[in-house]
Structures are given as structure tokens and as C-alpha cells.
Amino acid sequence: MTSPSLIVRPLASTAEYALYYRLANTAFAPEPSEEDAQRWQDRSLHSPDFRAERVRGALREGQLLGGYGLYGRVLRMGAGSLLAVLARL
Length: 89
Hints:
By secondary structure, the chain is α+β, with helices and mostly antiparallel strands. Helix content is 30%, strand content 39%. The protein has one domain (6-88). The protein has a 4-stranded antiparallel β-sheet with strand order 1-2-3-4. Helix 1 (14-28) crosses helix 2.
């Protein structure tokens, strides 16, 4: 028997964003709450460096199971620089 595929893609709706931040808050906050999840979502979405395509959800049969964010960083040493991407759950 084959299990349904896991699909990873950018979040596509306000409902997916709300659920993404509720799941993240439940997983990582010492005392999760709807208010904390909403505050985290508002702070993230209104950040000057926010890019919607960098917030990804993992879905199975249309249900959001979790996700991650990709954040671009530039590492510099002297005259050299290197573009790096940080994935944060």
C-alpha cells in the first residue's frame, strides 16, 4: 500500500499562514497561545525582509502538517562574500 505524497510548496492562503504559525507556536513556545501565534505571524508578515515564497508548508492530502522558512544571509570576510540560505522551522 502506498502512502499519499508529501507536497512542499509556498503557503497559498491566509488560512494556511494562520495554521502554519499556530503549529509553529505550539511546537516551539514554552506556553503556546493563539495570541502568541498571531503576534508571531503579524511580526513575520510585516517584516521588511519578508518574502512570501520563502515560507513553505508541508502538506499531505491538502492538510498542512508543518513547514519552514528560508532566510537569505550574506556572509562577509574582507572583500569576499557568500550568499547563504538558512532554513528555520
